[in-house]
Specification:
Blueprint: H1 16-21, H2 26-38, H3 40-47, E1 61-64, E2 71-74, E3 79-80, H4 82-86, H5 91-94, E4 98-103, E5 112-115, H6 116-132, E6 140-144, H7 150-161, E7 164-167, H8 174-183, E8 188-192, E9 195-197, E10 200-202, H9 204-212, E11 220-224, E12 238-240, H10 241-246, E13 257-258, E14 262-268, E15 276-281, H11 283-296, E16 304-307, H12 314-326, E17 330-334, H13 345-353, E18 357-360, H14 362-371, H15 374-377, E19 386-390, H16 396-406, E20 413-416, E21 450-453, E22 459-460, E23 464-470, E24 480-481, H17 485-493, E25 500-508, E26 514-519, E27 523-526, E28 529-532, H18 533-541, E29 546-556, E30 560-569, H19 577-590, E31 599-602, H20 616-623, H21 640-647
Parallel strand pairs: 4-17, 6-7, 6-8, 7-14, 8-11, 11-12, 16-17, 16-18, 18-19, 19-20, 30-31
Antiparallel strand pairs: 1-2, 3-13, 4-5, 9-10, 14-15, 15-24, 21-22, 21-23, 23-25, 25-26, 27-28, 29-30
Bound molecules: 5'-O-[(S)-butoxy(hydroxy)phosphoryl]adenosine.
Length: 653
């Protein structure tokens, strides 16, 4: 961990203006934090009032992490509607205020400003279209859309009528889409003709059709007309959304939902098996998303806020759509990519829309840092007040660059640690309260009780390093794995009984600051995208020429981690560059471009114990080019295997 000691900014004090004007200063943070963990019912009972409830709750927290009886309920006797909270209740004061700024992929295409009133009309119309297609409360609706305003309409339309949305990132393949439709038995899909990213078209409708060859139960496909490209069509199943919405009424009463009714499912990768459907519910999720959005980003009325994530990830759910809109914010949705038409694009968008708060991932910061400061210096960025980071540990070099070059030492950086499962930010600075240390996510948010445990689950006090767990429930956390509560309990609560296990390694320094060191399970983080090595392995072994595969992560300058694949071929097959390309394309096809292998090494054998277990520790070392220090290899069934692996390693520094 010595690399953390070399940064130039040791700690950064809270600027005076922030201390004075932010919602939360240090005093308030300390007092409220104490209250939040000592009297959670009182604390969250009051916080819940930030939403409009149809029937107010009388019970606040009813949760247990006790294995195997884990059960999480918040505000359980209250009723509300998420769309009414994100849209309707703002109409009186903000009907004419922009809710969503949409910035298209091509800077020459005009941007759109969607007011809260227009958002209301669109959400109601889309909700009525869903109803007319037979969508009922509790039904699952799969959303496979690009970064245009429609996914926000669709999410809120589902919430309005009590349907449960499951968004599948537009970069996923037909197979990945099919698996997610199948798992939650979704009968309705919303997609677009095509997506557009960096000038390239993504055939979303064609992908959907391919996926639906495997999902006979899908009744309706609603298609957004976006690029105008020609698409395959199935009469009786496919419906143009614009035509249906034009004919729909612009009023749709919001359904009264219980606080614990499901709001959405979002699939995420774990260390084993297929992706899990993380289930989030209504009341606690929205309270937590709105509160964290307000305090972490210190969002004040009228601020222009931009989170660069895709709505297909949890960051897009909580911090493009639900949190900001619950707060009546102006949220920017960007269709494009950081380096198209060139590496100034982000900062040009910041200038064009006078963005005040900017939230992105370290991988984007590193890529833009590599493109050179001239792409930054030709923009103003004077509107920026606060910068945020999410998705993976931010290395101090990237932090420094973000702070000095992008923010010109004016903007605090909030390095926010959280997960799909947590629903919202758990460990983070608050800009008016927390001294910053580059590379540290700093301190827990209200109500969050992190702890560091050793391998046996003993809680370590003071300065410590080990595995990160959370000791008690917070309102935004997932409630279950859709359709498999047992898997939820096993995955998160069995390793350390009575505690939520995050899967992350972590260190705590003498000031009590948390430094996330990365996953300790077989999950890798590629450009801020989470991937199970097991998923890539099963894609590889599905190829007819592959007999066995083992996949590990290795340090990658831009992506954070790269994907390193060891592949054993069927007997008689020869490894070649052509076959590497074939396998790379194969994986892209099976999962999506984000899973594209960075390194493929053909391996006649994999290092295994005598009981046949692959020794991943050794494979990780070789992938990292650290083969001088392979540790204990005495349990290997065939030590000769390692010699060949080292000789033919692909990542030589
Ligand atoms: C994993 C969760 C949370 C939204 C995006 C990712 C890593 C996330 C940080 C951070 C260090 C981070 C962790 C975590 N991670 N934020 N600020 N510092 N690591 O959500 O796909 O569910 O991935 O991302 O390893 O477990 P996700």
């Amino acid at each position: 961990m010595s690399e953390h000691k070399t940064y130039k900014v040791e700690t950064l004090k809270v600027p005076k203006a922030w201390k004075e004007n932010a919602f939360i200063d240090k005093d308030k943070y300390e007092k409220l934090y104490e209250k939040s963990v000592e009297k959670p019912d009182k604390f969250w009972g009051k916080e819940g009032e930030r939403l409009d409830w149809i029937k107010p709750y009388t019970r606040v927290k009813n949760t247990t992490f006790e294995f195997p009886n884990v059960s999480i309920k918040w505000f359980e006797d209250g009723t509300l509607n998420v769309a009414a909270n994100c849209v309707d209740r703002h109409l009186k004061k903000r009907g004419k205020q922009t809710a969503i700024i949409w910035e298209p992929d091509d800077p020459k295409t005009p941007a759109k400003h969607i007011t809260y009133r227009e958002l209301y009309d669109n959400v109601c119309r889309l909700a009525n279209v869903l109803k007319a297609q037979g969508v009922k409360k509790g039904d699952r609706v799969t959303i496979y859309l690009p970064m245009i305003p429609e996914p926000a309409y669709a999410m809120l339309a589902c919430a309005r009528i009590g349907a449960v949305h499951s968004i599948v990132f537009g970069g996923f393949s037909p197979d990945a889409l099919a698996g997610r439709i199948e798992d939650c038995k979704s009968e309705f899909v919303i997609t677009a003709d095509e997506g557009l990213r960096g000038g390239r078209k993504i055939p979303l409708k064609a992908n959907t059709d391919t996926a639906l060859q495997k999902n006979g139960h899908v009744k309706t496909v609603l298609v957004v007309r976006h690029t105008g490209g020609t698409v395959p069509w199935t009469d009786g199943r496919d419906v143009w959304l614009d035509e249906a919405m034009a004919g729909a009424e612009a009023e749709c009463p919001p359904e009264e939902m219980n606080a614990e009714d499901p709001l959405f499912i979002l699939y995420t990768s774990g260390s084993t098996g297929k992706p899990k459907g993380v289930l989030h519910t209504t009341g606690g999720y929205l309270v937590y998303a709105a509160m964290t959005h307000q305090y972490v980003f210190d969002y004040h009325d009228g601020d222009v806020y931009w989170c660069t994530a895709d709505v297909g990830w949890v960051t897009g759910h909580s911090y493009i759509v639900y949190g900001p809109l619950a707060n009546g914010a102006i949220t920017l949705m960007f269709e494009g990519v950081p380096n198209y038409p060139d590496a100034s694009r982000f900062w040009q968008v910041v200038d064009k829309h006078k963005v005040n708060i900017f939230y992105t991932a370290p991988t984007a910061i590193r890529a833009l840092m590599g493109a050179g400061n001239e792409h930054v210096k030709n923009t103003s960025r004077k509107s920026l007040r606060l910068l945020g980071s999410v998705g993976e540990p931010i290395n101090p070099e990237a932090w420094e660059w973000y702070y000095h070059v992008i923010g010109e030492k004016r903007c605090p950086i909030v390095d926010t640690w959280w997960q799909t499962e947590t629903g919202g930010i758990l460990i983070t600075p608050l800009p008016g309260a927390t001294k910053l240390k580059p590379g540290s996510a700093t301190l827990p948010f209200f109500g969050v009780q992190p702890a560091i445990v050793d391998a046996d689950g003993n809680i370590l006090e003071g300065e410590a390093a080990g595995n990160l767990v959370i000791l008690d429930a917070w309102p935004g956390m997932m409630r279950t794995v859709y359709g498999d509560h047992q898997r939820f309990v096993e995955t998160y609560f069995s390793a350390y009984k009575g505690k939520y296990f995050t899967g992350d390694g972590c260190r705590r320094d003498a000031d009590g600051y948390y430094w996330i060191t990365g996953r300790v399970d077989d999950v890798i983080n590629v450009s801020g995208h989470r991937m199970g090595t097991a998923e890539v392995e099963s894609a590889l072994v599905a190829h007819p020429k592959v007999s066995e595969a083992a996949v590990v992560g290795y340090p990658h300058d831009i992506k954070g981690q790269g994907i390193y694949c060891y592949v054993t071929l069927m007997s008689g097959e020869e490894g070649s560059d052509a076959l590497k390309k074939e396998l790379r394309d194969w994986v892209r096809n099976e999962i999506g471009p984000i899973a594209s292998p960075d390194q493929i090494q053909f391996a006649p054998g994999l290092p295994k114990t005598r009981s046949g277990k692959i020794m991943r520790r050794i494979l990780r070392k070789i992938a990292e080019d650290e083969f001088g220090n392979l540790g204990d290899t005495s349990t290997l069934a065939d030590p000769g295997v390692v010699t060949d692996l080292v000789e033919n390693r692909q990542n030589r520094r």
